[in-house]
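Cross-check.
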Amino acid sequence: MAVDPSAGGPENRAKPIRKTSMGSRRTHYDALGIGRDASSVDIASAFREKLAELKAKPETSAEALAAVRDAYQTLANPDARASYDDTLTPLPTARSVRAARAAPVAAADEGEESGFFQSRKAVIGIAILVVMVAVWGWKASRKPAPQARIVSVTQLDAAPQPDREPAGESSPAAVVPVPAAAAAVVLSAEELFAAAAPGVVRVLVADDAGLTVSQGSGVVIGAFKVITNCHVTRDGAAITVMTAAANLPATISVADEEFDLCSLDVPRLDAPPLAVGSIGALRTGQRVYAIGAPMGLELTISEGIVSSLRDVGAGQVIQTTAPVSPGSSGGGLFTTDGTLVGVVTFQHRYGQNLNFAVPADWIGQMRTRSAAASPARATSVASAEPTTAQLMLGKWHCFGSLSGRNGEYTYRSDGMLRVVSNDGRNFAVPYRLAGRSLQYAIQGEAFTFEIESISRTSMVQVVGDGQRLACDRTS
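Predicted model, tokenized:
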């Protein structure tokens, strides 16, 4: 009787050569197909590729997709990654690798006398197995060879096999990239935010006194490089780029005011660069997402469509219904596969949901130049989103039903507020704006109001005791 060498007989179970270390648990690095030394750029790239690969397979389970997302969310965060790495087995040293390689050889030598070949039945089984393999090989050689073209098509659709030897020169189709149509990926809003948000930052601009005068967003396009709008950085003396992990000083390296795009150098920035696309791939009605920091809040995502591609003096800009707000300037506009196609720049304040982004194509065409070279662009973009300090200037009629602070308020550019109250009082006090906090000094005593909302026509301030002062612009 033939003996199956894979059977679980006593002599087979006892052999050390059957031991293996492949039972170790699957790690987040395994889920993304990367090594433990992968950089943040490698992690973001691997996440996009692995997600695309899984979504292209109809048999992919929800658990497999969840494993890839969990792996990215952990490894993309430096603190979470460090904590996770502490739970893993330390990376092998050169000495341990040499010892591991020598162990199977020693085990095989030890088992020569009492192992597999001492069993007479096993010898007979091997002989029978060899005869069967020879017969199978003879039969297989008589069958017609498969067509090379069919093999090539299979290789294009199959997932990459890193442990397999590369195809020879006779099978070039095996290494041809997947066609663009087959590679198209449609991410959910959750997946897109997880993939793209690490490449979007907040930009804070302060004056010489350290007071915040402007805030916006920015997109990472390379090592230590961030793109934002020039109208975000124009009025400040110090620029800070804020990521989830750190607040970093930044300097302007290129200021292209005609495009309203400024390039920032941010030393020590550890954020993955975004994949940059082209306006040429966009179509009216196409779904897009905007990611930025509206009103200085943490990063948020909004969904919309491409309303139109509008011709301007320098080319085309993207009109979209994806909602944006002051602070969104400099943020990213993305297609459903996570590609950056635009930089959110301005909105039409007197229309409904009329938002615009300049094309990502302009990033590669940037050069230092003044907005004076293109007056039409400077008017439509640079002045479209004034800062809070600029919006406050002018005359307002304010009414506080409980506070009694009713009257005409005039905010001047020299930092003085003139108040003519309804009861006939007329006085002036200095004021200072720090972010959304409005600080007054009255007879040596400081008072702080918070600006709850502000636009060209209305403003609401919250008094310290929770009461509100509602104002309408009069001039």
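Residues 389-473 form a domain with the Lipocalin fold (CATH 2.40.128.280). Residues 1-23, 145-183, 373-384 have pLDDT under 50 and may be disordered. Passed to J.P. for a second look.
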